[in-house]
């Protein structure tokens, strides 16, 4: 039995196989390969895109989805998350999709289940399906020619699980990843190039991945307002100019803070393509793990 806790759980060949399936699922033709399967979603953090994307992916493959309301679950009565998951497992689902604020929790739950666990985001640690759909979007845009492409991840890289997963995944496909952020959001490691100003590298970039400023994950206030942050880090037409750069964002986008209104309408911005690709990638992940 295989789980998806982090992107390294899949080999490069397995990921390319996911992409083959995702291309088929992008046709959105009737498909019931998971008919009779039951998938449980267990989200301890708010989510719109990821949760609905998984649920739509599952239903497009014919599976039934049980979405548990954490606020009314036994966890609110003092039951541990381990007992909650063990009880759900005893009901014999075919997969459990979980999001939680605690880093490493999905991995620690693997010993309590007899079905695949899919990590839909754990704290600041990882968001593997988001990274996979980001990679798929880049891979398709460049027709598979990702070797040597330069990617800048811009914004709150310190607390972003999206940045965490992408910095591990994208280099496996030959991409050169760097980080751009104010000092307070700086990535602590030294294995990647880091910059304070996007102007330092903009002429060399093939991809910009903008991130949401996750103020809820910080214990200190670094900016008087998001507008102050946006002066230096909002991706605008003035910043990008006429350069041939692919613009991505995992969502939700803070308009005119992460990306300007005009740039969101620009054909180089593929935020909605990412959303579409997310359904296909998550369908491919469900197929792989459940039918393995």
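Q: What amino acid sequence fits the structure above?
A:
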């Amino acid at each position: 039995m295989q789980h998806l806790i982090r992107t390294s759980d899949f080999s490069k060949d397995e990921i390319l196989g996911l992409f083959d399936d995702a291309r088929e699922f992008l046709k959105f033709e009737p498909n019931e390969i998971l008919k009779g399967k039951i998938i449980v979603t267990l989200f301890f953090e708010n989510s719109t895109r990821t949760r609905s994307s998984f649920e739509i992916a599952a239903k497009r493959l014919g599976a039934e989805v049980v979405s548990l309301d954490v606020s009314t679950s036994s966890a609110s009565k003092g039951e541990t998350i381990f007992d909650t998951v063990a009880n759900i497992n005893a009901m014999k689902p075919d997969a459990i999709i979980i999001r939680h604020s605690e880093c490493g929790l999905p991995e620690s739950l693997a010993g309590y289940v007899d079905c695949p666990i899919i990590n839909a985001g754990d704290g600041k640690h990882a968001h593997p399906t988001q990274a996979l759909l980001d990679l798929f979007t880049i891979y398709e845009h460049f027709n598979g020619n990702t070797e040597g492409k330069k990617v800048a991840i811009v914004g709150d890289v310190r607390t972003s699980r999206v940045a965490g997963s992408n910095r591990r995944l994208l280099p496996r496909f030959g991409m050169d990843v760097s980080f751009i952020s104010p000092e307070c959001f700086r990535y602590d490691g030294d294995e990647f190039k880091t910059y304070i100003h996007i102007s330092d590298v903009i002429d060399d970039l093939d991809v910009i991945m903008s991130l949401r400023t996750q103020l809820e994950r910080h214990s200190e206030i670094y900016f008087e307002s998001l507008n102050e942050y946006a002066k230096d880090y909002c991706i605008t037409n003035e910043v990008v100019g006429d350069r041939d750069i692919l613009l991505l964002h995992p969502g939700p986008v803070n308009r005119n803070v992460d990306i300007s209104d005009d740039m969101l309408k620009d054909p180089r911005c593929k935020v909605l393509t990412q959303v579409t690709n997310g359904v296909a990638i998550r369908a491919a992940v469900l197929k792989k793990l459940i039918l393995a």
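Q: And what stands out in the fold?
A: Strands lie at 38-43, 64-68, 95-100, 117-122, 150-154, 176-180, 193-195, 207-210, 246-248.
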